[in-house]
Prior knowledge:
single chain, alpha/beta, Rossmann fold, globular
Amino acid sequence: MSLKNYALKKYLSLNHTKKLTADLSIDDARGDLNDTISTFMPKFSKKIRLQQAEIAGVPGEWVEHEKSDKERLIIYFHGGGFTIGSPVSHRGATTSLAKTLQAKLFCINYRKAPEHSYPAAHNDCFQVYQYFAESAQNFAKVIVAGDQTGVALLLQTLVRARDEDLKLPAAIVCFSPLTDMTLSGRSMESNKKKDLALHPDLLKRSIDLYFVNQEDRDHPEISPVFADLEKMPPAVIQVGEDEILLDDALFLQKSMENAGCKVMLEKWKSVTHLWQLAAFSGAFGLPEAKRAIKQVGQQIEPLLKMRWLDFEL
C-alpha cells in the first residue's frame, strides 16, 4: 500500500466513514463529497481542456488532452447512487482516462434524485448516447465507461441501443459496478466494515429515492445484471476486494460471460471504493489509481485496434 493510499484511507475513516448512515441527508452527502474533492483535487495541467456543454439537451463536460485523437471518444456515466456526483467530482478519473486512451471524453451530468426520479437519468443518458451513435463518424473508436450506479445507467443504455439497432461501442470500462438494485450480494454484509467510502444502508436509501415507484428491483430494466446482455462489447471491470460492491462485479462478470461476452475482471487489494477517482496527474495522484487507469489503457488499446480492423475489412 502506498503512503498516499494510507493517508486517503485514514482521512476517510476519520472524516467520512462515520457519516455513512441512512440518516445522512442528500444535501449533506453532496456537501461531504464537495469537501473531499476540495481537499484532494489539485489544479489540472494546462494540457487538459475542460469545457461545459450540452449534448441532445443534456448537460455535461468535455475533457480533452492535448494529444487526444479527435476520432476517439469516451462517453462517461458517473456514479453517485443516482443522487450525488457530477463531472467535477469525477475529473480525477475522466482526465486520466482521456490522457491514457488519447481520447476526447464527454461526462454526462444527468438529472438526479430526489429532484428527479426514475427514469430521468436513464432517459438523459440514452439521449446522449443516441446522439453520438447517430453522429459519430467512426464508432469503432468509441468507448463507454462508468462507475458504481453509472455502470447500471451505462448497461441499460447499451441494452436499449442494441434493441433499437443503434451502433455499439468498441469496449466497456466498469469501475466498482452496481448493477443489482436488490443489493443481494454477500459482500454487502461481509465488507460492510471494511468499505470506508460506501455503506449498504446509504446505498439502499439512494436507490429508494430514485426508483421511488418501482417495487420490482430485480426487473431487468432496473437491475441490468439480470438483463439479456448478449452482444455487449468486451468489458474491463475493476473492483476492490474490500468493497461492498465486490459481489456486484462478480455477478456482472458471470452475467456477461453467460451471454457470450468477453470480460476482464481485476480485483484490487487495499484500495477504497472508486480509488480511480484519485488518478490525478503529477505528485497529487494516488499511485494505485494511476496504475488502475494505466491497466485500463493496456486492456482497451488492443480492442480499439481490433475493432478498427473489423470495420476496415
